[in-house]
Design goal:
The protein has 271 residues and is of the alpha/beta class. The chain has eight helices and ten strands. It has a five-stranded parallel β-sheet. A three-stranded parallel β-sheet has the order 6-7-8. The longest helix has 21 residues. The protein is globular, with a radius of gyration of 20 Å.
């Protein structure tokens, strides 16, 4: 969704991210897997400034395993928006069932991140199964943020189905390759009426900044932070990159030119 540039982008409250009718100051969404322990998870999320944290319901305890440490102990729902995701699902039926479980565990929570994978090696989405799951979930009242590939036609289809956000990959999950096809991402942004958030493939802060400079509404990442040598420091770097990229987009960059031009006008000067 390509927003209108704001007059003063420096205050995040004047330029919020709006997802499913709720506003957020941070445009960085973070995952909660692959950290050494819950304490490192907590510290990295705090350093990121994220307000939405995504949780793999099939891999993370959020109450289904009583007597074991729960992620919600360190990331409480009264402080963060918990975004259950269907990571590890390879068919529509399993993904739908996982979302229903998450809604039960989180007292009727309806905002979910849908991903249905087609291949365990590349983790590319199975868009046929994803479309099928999205139809069911939207019909059942879920607010679906959908992980998909960077196809502008599919992005439009998910929006037409009623998904509240479209989340195209920048590169394969966990690859850290950065945005491989910026023109497809740009096309999705230019035509969307719902938030567009890059999901998967970010490796470092510059990748996040580029996504925001393209006009994306936000970025979701996990491995780029959790797999860094210093996850907490990388989380802080990503926070700054998201903010800088957003401001650069709102500011409007100068045109690219083949050759240099004088920084000061020379018309009317005396030689």
């Amino acid at each position: 969704m390509s927003p209108t540039p704001a007059a003063s982008p420096l205050d995040p409250s004047a330029d919020p991210l709006v997802v499913a009718g709720r506003t957020y100051r941070s445009r960085l969404l973070v995952g909660t897997g692959k950290y050494r322990d819950l304490e490192e998870t907590r510290l990295a999320v705090e350093a990121s400034g994220a307000e939405i944290v995504t949780v793999a319901v099939r891999r993370t305890n959020i109450g289904q395993n009583t007597g074991e440490p729960s992620l919600l102990d360190v990331l409480p729902p009264d402080r963060y928006t918990i975004l259950p995701n269907t990571a590890g699902c390879y068919d529509a039926e399993t993904a739908v069932r996982t979302c229903r479980l998450a809604r039960e565990l989180l007292d009727g929570h309806s905002l979910v991140k849908l991903e249905v994978l087609g291949d365990p090696k590349t983790l590319f989405p199975d868009v046929v199964q994803t479309l099928a799951a999205a139809e069911v979930l939207v019909r059942e009242g879920f607010q679906v943020m959908v992980y998909t590939n960077d196809d502008p036609i599919l992005a439009r289809r998910f929006e037409e189905l009623g998904c509240v956000a479209v989340m195209p990959l920048a590169a394969p999950i966990g690859s850290g390759l950065g945005i491989r096809n910026p023109y497809n991402i740009l096309t999705i942004v230019e035509n969307a009426k719902v938030p567009v958030l890059v999901d998967a493939g970010v490796g470092t802060a510059s990748d996040a900044a580029i996504a925001m400079e393209l006009g994306c509404d936000g970025v979701l990442m996990n491995t780029a932070i959790a797999a860094a040598k210093s996850p907490i420091l990388m989380a802080s770097a990503m926070r700054k990159a998201i903010e800088a990229g957003r401001e650069a987009f709102l500011a409007g960059r100068m045109p690219k030119k083949r050759f240099a031009s004088a920084s000061s006008p020379i018309e009317g000067t005396f030689f």
